[in-house]
Specification:
By secondary structure, the protein is an alpha/beta fold. The chain contains 16 helices and 17 strands. The protein folds into three domains: 53 residues, 3-methyladenine DNA Glycosylase II, Chain A, domain 3 (Orthogonal Bundle); 250 residues, TIM Barrel (Alpha-Beta Barrel), CATH 3.20.20; 119 residues, Rossmann fold (3-Layer(aba) Sandwich), CATH 3.40.50.11600. The protein has an eight-stranded parallel beta sheet with strand order 10-9-8-7-6-3-12-11.
Length: 446
Protein backbone atom coordinates (compact mmCIF):
# COMPACT_ATOMS: atom_id res chain seq x y z
CA UNK A 1 0.00 0.00 0.00
CA UNK A 2 1.32 3.47 -0.91
CA UNK A 3 2.56 5.65 1.95
CA UNK A 4 1.12 9.07 2.72
CA UNK A 5 3.23 12.22 2.61
CA UNK A 6 3.46 12.36 6.42
CA UNK A 7 4.54 8.70 6.59
CA UNK A 8 7.23 9.37 4.01
CA UNK A 9 8.35 12.52 5.85
CA UNK A 10 9.01 10.51 9.01
CA UNK A 11 11.50 8.36 7.07
CA UNK A 12 13.40 11.28 5.54
CA UNK A 13 16.55 12.80 7.15
CA UNK A 14 14.79 16.09 8.00
CA UNK A 15 17.76 18.28 7.04
CA UNK A 16 15.77 20.67 4.81
CA UNK A 17 18.93 20.91 2.70
CA UNK A 18 17.02 22.04 -0.42
CA UNK A 19 19.29 19.89 -2.64
CA UNK A 20 16.20 18.02 -3.89
CA UNK A 21 14.87 21.23 -5.42
CA UNK A 22 12.17 22.07 -2.83
CA UNK A 23 12.52 24.08 0.41
CA UNK A 24 11.71 21.39 2.99
CA UNK A 25 11.72 17.64 3.53
CA UNK A 26 7.96 17.84 4.10
CA UNK A 27 7.42 19.38 0.67
CA UNK A 28 9.64 16.71 -0.87
CA UNK A 29 7.68 13.99 0.93
CA UNK A 30 4.40 15.35 -0.45
CA UNK A 31 5.85 15.42 -3.96
CA UNK A 32 7.13 11.87 -3.54
CA UNK A 33 3.73 10.65 -2.38
CA UNK A 34 2.00 12.22 -5.37
CA UNK A 35 4.49 10.86 -7.90
CA UNK A 36 5.97 14.28 -8.70
CA UNK A 37 9.45 13.50 -7.37
CA UNK A 38 11.93 10.64 -7.33
CA UNK A 39 13.59 9.22 -4.24
CA UNK A 40 16.91 9.61 -6.06
CA UNK A 41 16.50 13.39 -5.71
CA UNK A 42 17.30 13.11 -1.99
CA UNK A 43 21.07 12.62 -1.47
CA UNK A 44 20.83 11.85 2.25
CA UNK A 45 18.12 9.21 2.57
CA UNK A 46 19.38 6.13 4.46
CA UNK A 47 19.49 2.65 2.90
CA UNK A 48 16.91 1.44 5.43
CA UNK A 49 14.53 4.26 4.60
CA UNK A 50 15.13 3.78 0.89
CA UNK A 51 13.99 0.18 1.15
CA UNK A 52 10.82 1.19 3.01
CA UNK A 53 10.15 4.01 0.54
CA UNK A 54 10.66 1.90 -2.58
CA UNK A 55 6.92 1.45 -3.18
CA UNK A 56 6.10 5.08 -2.50
CA UNK A 57 8.83 6.33 -4.81
CA UNK A 58 7.87 4.03 -7.68
CA UNK A 59 6.00 5.74 -10.52
CA UNK A 60 2.22 5.32 -10.32
CA UNK A 61 2.39 3.30 -13.54
CA UNK A 62 5.20 0.78 -13.19
CA UNK A 63 7.67 0.55 -16.09
CA UNK A 64 8.02 -2.79 -17.89
CA UNK A 65 10.82 -3.74 -20.28
CA UNK A 66 10.02 -5.95 -23.23
CA UNK A 67 12.70 -7.41 -25.46
CA UNK A 68 16.44 -6.99 -25.67
CA UNK A 69 18.88 -5.50 -28.12
CA UNK A 70 18.61 -2.35 -30.19
CA UNK A 71 14.81 -2.39 -30.19
CA UNK A 72 14.22 -3.20 -26.53
CA UNK A 73 11.19 -1.32 -25.35
CA UNK A 74 10.26 0.11 -21.97
CA UNK A 75 6.58 0.90 -21.52
CA UNK A 76 4.79 2.51 -18.59
CA UNK A 77 6.59 4.66 -16.04
CA UNK A 78 4.26 7.60 -16.70
CA UNK A 79 3.53 10.21 -14.05
CA UNK A 80 1.12 12.68 -15.70
CA UNK A 81 -2.16 12.70 -17.59
CA UNK A 82 -1.17 15.46 -20.00
CA UNK A 83 2.22 15.93 -21.57
CA UNK A 84 2.27 19.70 -20.94
CA UNK A 85 2.24 18.96 -17.19
CA UNK A 86 5.70 17.40 -17.42
CA UNK A 87 6.40 14.93 -20.21
CA UNK A 88 5.57 11.39 -21.31
CA UNK A 89 8.59 9.15 -20.78
CA UNK A 90 8.14 5.86 -22.61
CA UNK A 91 6.73 5.80 -26.10
CA UNK A 92 3.90 3.54 -27.21
CA UNK A 93 5.19 0.28 -28.65
CA UNK A 94 3.85 -0.42 -32.13
CA UNK A 95 3.33 -4.10 -32.90
CA UNK A 96 2.05 -6.25 -35.74
CA UNK A 97 0.27 -9.57 -35.30
CA UNK A 98 1.05 -12.76 -37.24
CA UNK A 99 -0.66 -16.14 -37.03
CA UNK A 100 1.26 -19.21 -35.93
CA UNK A 101 0.21 -21.09 -39.11
CA UNK A 102 2.00 -18.67 -41.45
CA UNK A 103 4.37 -20.38 -43.87
CA UNK A 104 8.11 -19.91 -43.44
CA UNK A 105 8.36 -18.26 -46.86
CA UNK A 106 5.59 -15.77 -46.15
CA UNK A 107 7.00 -14.99 -42.71
CA UNK A 108 10.47 -14.23 -44.05
CA UNK A 109 8.99 -12.02 -46.75
CA UNK A 110 6.95 -10.09 -44.20
CA UNK A 111 9.91 -9.68 -41.85
CA UNK A 112 12.08 -8.38 -44.69
CA UNK A 113 9.41 -5.83 -45.63
CA UNK A 114 8.69 -4.79 -42.04
CA UNK A 115 12.36 -4.45 -41.15
CA UNK A 116 12.76 -1.98 -44.00
CA UNK A 117 10.21 0.39 -42.46
CA UNK A 118 12.66 2.83 -40.90
CA UNK A 119 12.32 6.58 -41.28
CA UNK A 120 14.84 9.32 -40.53
CA UNK A 121 13.38 12.30 -38.72
CA UNK A 122 15.15 15.06 -36.75
CA UNK A 123 18.18 12.83 -36.43
CA UNK A 124 16.11 9.95 -35.05
CA UNK A 125 15.41 6.57 -36.59
CA UNK A 126 11.66 5.91 -36.38
CA UNK A 127 10.54 2.30 -36.60
CA UNK A 128 8.16 -0.25 -35.02
CA UNK A 129 9.44 -2.56 -32.31
CA UNK A 130 7.24 -5.62 -31.84
CA UNK A 131 5.73 -8.66 -33.51
CA UNK A 132 2.90 -10.52 -31.75
CA UNK A 133 2.71 -14.23 -32.57
CA UNK A 134 -0.85 -15.54 -32.14
CA UNK A 135 -1.49 -19.22 -31.58
CA UNK A 136 -4.32 -20.13 -33.96
CA UNK A 137 -4.04 -23.94 -34.10
CA UNK A 138 -2.78 -25.14 -30.72
CA UNK A 139 0.30 -26.58 -32.45
CA UNK A 140 3.16 -25.93 -30.01
CA UNK A 141 5.85 -26.80 -32.55
CA UNK A 142 4.51 -24.43 -35.22
CA UNK A 143 4.07 -21.64 -32.66
CA UNK A 144 7.63 -22.05 -31.39
CA UNK A 145 9.04 -22.17 -34.91
CA UNK A 146 7.40 -18.91 -35.98
CA UNK A 147 8.46 -17.18 -32.76
CA UNK A 148 12.01 -18.50 -33.06
CA UNK A 149 12.32 -17.32 -36.66
CA UNK A 150 11.28 -13.81 -35.67
CA UNK A 151 13.61 -13.78 -32.66
CA UNK A 152 16.65 -15.08 -34.53
CA UNK A 153 16.30 -13.40 -37.93
CA UNK A 154 15.00 -9.92 -37.06
CA UNK A 155 15.46 -7.14 -34.54
CA UNK A 156 11.79 -7.24 -33.56
CA UNK A 157 10.87 -8.11 -30.01
CA UNK A 158 8.06 -10.54 -29.30
CA UNK A 159 4.62 -10.83 -27.80
CA UNK A 160 3.66 -14.49 -27.38
CA UNK A 161 -0.13 -14.98 -27.53
CA UNK A 162 -1.66 -18.33 -26.53
CA UNK A 163 -4.31 -19.65 -24.16
CA UNK A 164 -2.60 -23.02 -23.91
CA UNK A 165 0.15 -23.47 -21.36
CA UNK A 166 2.08 -26.10 -23.32
CA UNK A 167 2.09 -23.90 -26.43
CA UNK A 168 3.25 -20.90 -24.42
CA UNK A 169 6.04 -22.92 -22.82
CA UNK A 170 7.26 -23.99 -26.25
CA UNK A 171 7.28 -20.40 -27.45
CA UNK A 172 9.16 -19.22 -24.37
CA UNK A 173 11.74 -21.98 -24.68
CA UNK A 174 12.46 -20.86 -28.25
CA UNK A 175 12.60 -17.14 -27.54
CA UNK A 176 13.36 -16.59 -23.86
CA UNK A 177 16.68 -14.93 -24.75
CA UNK A 178 14.64 -12.11 -26.33
CA UNK A 179 12.63 -11.35 -23.15
CA UNK A 180 9.18 -11.69 -24.79
CA UNK A 181 5.88 -10.54 -23.30
CA UNK A 182 3.60 -13.44 -22.28
CA UNK A 183 -0.03 -12.82 -23.32
CA UNK A 184 -2.14 -13.41 -21.34
CA UNK A 185 -3.07 -14.43 -17.80
CA UNK A 186 -6.85 -14.62 -17.34
CA UNK A 187 -9.21 -15.69 -14.58
CA UNK A 188 -9.01 -19.24 -15.94
CA UNK A 189 -5.23 -19.60 -15.99
CA UNK A 190 -3.84 -16.91 -13.66
CA UNK A 191 -2.15 -19.41 -11.35
CA UNK A 192 -0.40 -21.32 -14.13
CA UNK A 193 0.62 -18.25 -16.12
CA UNK A 194 1.69 -16.43 -12.97
CA UNK A 195 3.91 -19.34 -12.00
CA UNK A 196 5.35 -19.42 -15.53
CA UNK A 197 6.13 -15.69 -15.49
CA UNK A 198 7.75 -15.99 -12.08
CA UNK A 199 9.81 -18.97 -13.12
CA UNK A 200 11.05 -17.36 -16.34
CA UNK A 201 11.19 -13.78 -15.01
CA UNK A 202 9.35 -12.57 -18.12
CA UNK A 203 6.81 -9.75 -18.37
CA UNK A 204 3.20 -10.93 -18.26
CA UNK A 205 0.05 -9.47 -19.79
CA UNK A 206 -3.21 -9.76 -17.84
CA UNK A 207 -6.57 -9.83 -19.64
CA UNK A 208 -10.09 -9.52 -18.22
CA UNK A 209 -13.55 -8.54 -19.41
CA UNK A 210 -13.46 -5.13 -17.71
CA UNK A 211 -11.26 -2.82 -15.69
CA UNK A 212 -12.93 -3.99 -12.49
CA UNK A 213 -12.25 -7.62 -13.33
CA UNK A 214 -8.56 -6.86 -13.80
CA UNK A 215 -8.06 -5.81 -10.17
CA UNK A 216 -8.31 -9.23 -8.45
CA UNK A 217 -6.02 -10.69 -11.11
CA UNK A 218 -3.30 -8.04 -10.76
CA UNK A 219 -3.59 -8.12 -6.97
CA UNK A 220 -3.10 -11.88 -6.99
CA UNK A 221 -0.10 -11.71 -9.31
CA UNK A 222 1.53 -8.93 -7.29
CA UNK A 223 0.95 -11.06 -4.21
CA UNK A 224 2.90 -13.80 -6.00
CA UNK A 225 5.79 -11.37 -6.40
CA UNK A 226 5.12 -10.53 -10.05
CA UNK A 227 5.20 -6.82 -10.88
CA UNK A 228 6.23 -6.80 -14.55
CA UNK A 229 2.63 -6.67 -15.74
CA UNK A 230 0.86 -5.26 -18.79
CA UNK A 231 -2.94 -5.05 -18.59
CA UNK A 232 -5.73 -5.49 -21.14
CA UNK A 233 -9.26 -4.59 -19.96
CA UNK A 234 -10.66 -6.66 -22.83
CA UNK A 235 -12.74 -3.89 -24.42
CA UNK A 236 -12.88 -4.09 -28.21
CA UNK A 237 -15.59 -1.50 -28.90
CA UNK A 238 -14.00 1.87 -29.65
CA UNK A 239 -15.90 4.07 -27.20
CA UNK A 240 -15.55 1.65 -24.30
CA UNK A 241 -11.90 1.01 -25.09
CA UNK A 242 -11.11 4.73 -24.93
CA UNK A 243 -13.05 5.10 -21.67
CA UNK A 244 -11.11 2.19 -20.20
CA UNK A 245 -7.74 3.65 -21.17
CA UNK A 246 -8.58 7.03 -19.66
CA UNK A 247 -10.12 5.42 -16.57
CA UNK A 248 -7.05 3.27 -15.95
CA UNK A 249 -4.68 6.23 -16.32
CA UNK A 250 -6.76 8.42 -14.02
CA UNK A 251 -7.14 5.70 -11.38
CA UNK A 252 -3.39 5.06 -11.36
CA UNK A 253 -2.30 8.72 -11.33
CA UNK A 254 -5.04 10.51 -9.44
CA UNK A 255 -6.31 7.84 -7.04
CA UNK A 256 -2.89 6.11 -6.82
CA UNK A 257 -4.63 2.78 -7.38
CA UNK A 258 -1.71 0.35 -7.60
CA UNK A 259 -4.01 -2.44 -8.81
CA UNK A 260 -4.21 -0.77 -12.23
CA UNK A 261 -0.85 1.00 -12.11
CA UNK A 262 0.55 -0.89 -15.09
CA UNK A 263 1.05 -0.15 -18.81
CA UNK A 264 -1.76 -1.24 -21.13
CA UNK A 265 -1.93 -3.18 -24.39
CA UNK A 266 -4.52 -2.37 -27.07
CA UNK A 267 -5.69 -4.22 -30.19
CA UNK A 268 -6.88 -1.99 -33.06
CA UNK A 269 -6.49 -5.12 -35.21
CA UNK A 270 -9.55 -6.56 -33.44
CA UNK A 271 -11.59 -3.37 -33.64
CA UNK A 272 -11.72 -2.58 -37.36
CA UNK A 273 -12.24 -4.31 -40.70
CA UNK A 274 -9.72 -2.29 -42.73
CA UNK A 275 -6.29 -0.70 -42.27
CA UNK A 276 -7.57 2.87 -42.56
CA UNK A 277 -9.83 2.44 -39.55
CA UNK A 278 -7.17 0.45 -37.70
CA UNK A 279 -4.77 3.34 -38.18
CA UNK A 280 -7.26 5.86 -36.80
CA UNK A 281 -7.91 3.71 -33.73
CA UNK A 282 -4.18 3.15 -33.19
CA UNK A 283 -3.63 6.91 -33.39
CA UNK A 284 -6.26 7.36 -30.68
CA UNK A 285 -4.50 4.86 -28.42
CA UNK A 286 -1.09 6.44 -28.97
CA UNK A 287 -2.59 9.68 -27.71
CA UNK A 288 -4.69 8.12 -24.90
CA UNK A 289 -3.07 6.00 -23.40
CA UNK A 290 -2.03 2.68 -24.87
CA UNK A 291 1.47 1.54 -23.96
CA UNK A 292 1.39 -1.04 -26.76
CA UNK A 293 -0.88 -1.01 -29.80
CA UNK A 294 -1.17 -4.07 -32.07
CA UNK A 295 -1.95 -3.80 -35.79
CA UNK A 296 -2.85 -6.51 -38.29
CA UNK A 297 -0.16 -5.37 -40.74
CA UNK A 298 2.53 -2.76 -41.31
CA UNK A 299 2.07 -0.59 -44.38
CA UNK A 300 3.91 2.67 -45.14
CA UNK A 301 0.74 4.73 -45.39
CA UNK A 302 -0.36 3.52 -41.96
CA UNK A 303 2.93 3.20 -40.09
CA UNK A 304 4.61 6.47 -41.05
CA UNK A 305 1.89 8.80 -39.70
CA UNK A 306 1.65 6.72 -36.51
CA UNK A 307 5.40 6.97 -35.97
CA UNK A 308 5.28 10.74 -36.51
CA UNK A 309 2.36 11.12 -34.11
CA UNK A 310 4.24 9.10 -31.52
CA UNK A 311 7.36 11.22 -31.99
CA UNK A 312 5.41 14.43 -31.48
CA UNK A 313 3.51 13.22 -28.42
CA UNK A 314 6.51 11.67 -26.69
CA UNK A 315 8.83 14.61 -27.27
CA UNK A 316 9.44 16.68 -24.14
CA UNK A 317 7.23 19.78 -24.58
CA UNK A 318 9.63 21.80 -22.42
CA UNK A 319 12.53 21.04 -24.75
CA UNK A 320 12.45 22.01 -28.44
CA UNK A 321 13.00 19.34 -31.06
CA UNK A 322 16.58 19.61 -32.24
CA UNK A 323 18.94 18.16 -34.79
CA UNK A 324 22.58 17.39 -34.09
CA UNK A 325 25.17 20.12 -34.62
CA UNK A 326 27.43 19.47 -37.58
CA UNK A 327 27.89 19.57 -41.34
CA UNK A 328 25.03 18.29 -43.48
CA UNK A 329 25.56 17.42 -47.15
CA UNK A 330 22.60 18.19 -49.40
CA UNK A 331 22.73 16.92 -52.95
CA UNK A 332 26.35 15.63 -52.99
CA UNK A 333 28.18 18.97 -52.64
CA UNK A 334 31.79 19.44 -53.73
CA UNK A 335 34.58 21.91 -53.01
CA UNK A 336 32.86 24.60 -55.09
CA UNK A 337 29.41 24.27 -53.50
CA UNK A 338 27.90 27.06 -51.40
CA UNK A 339 28.04 26.96 -47.59
CA UNK A 340 25.02 27.98 -45.51
CA UNK A 341 24.57 28.12 -41.74
CA UNK A 342 21.47 28.08 -39.53
CA UNK A 343 20.26 26.92 -36.12
CA UNK A 344 19.47 23.39 -34.92
CA UNK A 345 15.74 23.96 -34.33
CA UNK A 346 14.27 20.91 -36.08
CA UNK A 347 11.62 22.83 -37.99
CA UNK A 348 14.21 25.33 -39.23
CA UNK A 349 16.46 22.50 -40.38
CA UNK A 350 13.73 20.68 -42.28
CA UNK A 351 12.42 23.80 -43.99
CA UNK A 352 15.86 25.07 -44.99
CA UNK A 353 17.21 21.68 -46.07
CA UNK A 354 14.02 21.02 -48.02
CA UNK A 355 14.28 24.29 -49.91
CA UNK A 356 17.96 23.68 -50.68
CA UNK A 357 17.16 20.19 -51.92
CA UNK A 358 14.34 21.61 -54.04
CA UNK A 359 16.72 24.11 -55.61
CA UNK A 360 18.85 21.24 -56.95
CA UNK A 361 21.96 23.21 -56.01
CA UNK A 362 24.30 20.89 -54.07
CA UNK A 363 25.20 22.70 -50.84
CA UNK A 364 26.86 22.40 -47.46
CA UNK A 365 24.48 23.20 -44.60
CA UNK A 366 26.11 23.96 -41.25
CA UNK A 367 23.86 23.40 -38.26
CA UNK A 368 24.93 25.22 -35.09
CA UNK A 369 23.67 24.12 -31.67
CA UNK A 370 21.40 26.86 -30.32
CA UNK A 371 19.56 24.59 -27.87
CA UNK A 372 16.73 24.15 -30.35
CA UNK A 373 15.93 27.84 -30.82
CA UNK A 374 14.93 29.38 -34.15
CA UNK A 375 17.15 31.99 -35.83
CA UNK A 376 15.55 35.14 -34.43
CA UNK A 377 15.04 33.69 -30.97
CA UNK A 378 18.59 32.30 -30.87
CA UNK A 379 20.04 35.62 -31.99
CA UNK A 380 18.03 37.52 -29.37
CA UNK A 381 19.17 35.05 -26.69
CA UNK A 382 22.82 35.42 -27.69
CA UNK A 383 23.08 31.83 -28.93
CA UNK A 384 23.58 32.77 -32.60
CA UNK A 385 26.05 35.60 -32.13
CA UNK A 386 28.80 36.31 -34.63
CA UNK A 387 31.68 35.16 -32.45
CA UNK A 388 29.92 31.89 -31.55
CA UNK A 389 28.98 31.14 -35.16
CA UNK A 390 32.51 32.02 -36.28
CA UNK A 391 34.07 29.71 -33.70
CA UNK A 392 31.74 26.93 -34.81
CA UNK A 393 32.67 27.39 -38.48
CA UNK A 394 36.37 27.17 -37.57
CA UNK A 395 35.95 24.02 -35.52
CA UNK A 396 33.48 22.09 -37.67
CA UNK A 397 36.00 21.39 -40.45
CA UNK A 398 34.13 22.91 -43.36
CA UNK A 399 37.22 24.90 -44.38
CA UNK A 400 38.90 21.65 -45.40
CA UNK A 401 36.03 20.75 -47.71
CA UNK A 402 35.65 23.92 -49.81
CA UNK A 403 37.83 26.21 -51.95
CA UNK A 404 35.51 29.21 -52.03
CA UNK A 405 35.23 30.45 -48.46
CA UNK A 406 31.87 32.18 -48.56
CA UNK A 407 29.39 31.77 -45.72
CA UNK A 408 25.70 32.44 -46.34
CA UNK A 409 23.82 33.40 -43.17
CA UNK A 410 20.04 33.78 -42.63
CA UNK A 411 18.61 37.18 -43.53
CA UNK A 412 17.18 37.59 -40.03
CA UNK A 413 20.71 37.31 -38.61
CA UNK A 414 22.17 40.13 -40.72
CA UNK A 415 23.21 41.95 -37.53
CA UNK A 416 26.00 39.44 -36.87
CA UNK A 417 27.88 40.14 -40.13
CA UNK A 418 30.44 42.47 -38.53
CA UNK A 419 31.31 40.07 -35.72
CA UNK A 420 31.49 37.17 -38.15
CA UNK A 421 33.89 39.02 -40.47
CA UNK A 422 36.16 39.73 -37.52
CA UNK A 423 36.03 36.11 -36.40
CA UNK A 424 36.47 34.74 -39.95
CA UNK A 425 38.81 37.15 -41.79
CA UNK A 426 39.45 34.61 -44.58
CA UNK A 427 35.74 34.22 -45.32
CA UNK A 428 33.24 36.31 -47.21
CA UNK A 429 30.00 36.64 -45.27
CA UNK A 430 26.88 36.93 -47.42
CA UNK A 431 23.41 37.68 -46.07
CA UNK A 432 20.88 35.28 -47.53
CA UNK A 433 17.10 35.71 -47.85
CA UNK A 434 14.97 36.13 -44.77
CA UNK A 435 12.47 33.46 -45.76
CA UNK A 436 13.45 29.89 -46.66
CA UNK A 437 11.14 29.70 -49.73
CA UNK A 438 13.36 32.35 -51.36
CA UNK A 439 16.46 30.15 -51.07
CA UNK A 440 16.07 28.26 -54.39
CA UNK A 441 16.04 31.47 -56.45
CA UNK A 442 18.88 32.90 -54.34
CA UNK A 443 21.10 29.82 -54.83
CA UNK A 444 20.36 29.48 -58.54
CA UNK A 445 21.29 33.11 -59.15
CA UNK A 446 24.79 32.73 -57.75
Amino acid sequence: MALTGIQIFKLLPGTNCKECGVPTCLAFAMNLASGKASLDDCPYVSPEAREKLAEASAPPILPVQIGKGVRKLTVGGETVLYRHEKTFYNKTGIAVRVASDISEKDLKAKLAAWNAFQYERVGLNLRPELVAVEDVSGDAKAFAMVAKTIAETSEFNLILMSKKLDVMKAGIEATRFKNPLIYAATADNVDAYGALAKETDLPLAVKADSVGALIPLTDKLVGMGIKKLVIDPGSREIKQALEDQVGIRRAALKALNRSVGFPTITFPCEMASNMDMETLIAAMFIAKYGAITVLSDFTPESLFPLLLERLNIFTDPQRPMMVTQGIYEIGNPNENSPVLVTTNFALTYFIVSGEIEGSRVPSWLLIKDTEGLSVLTAWAAGKFAGDDVGAFVKKCGIADKVKKKELIIPGYAAAIVGELEEELPDWTVTVGPREAPHLPAFLKSR
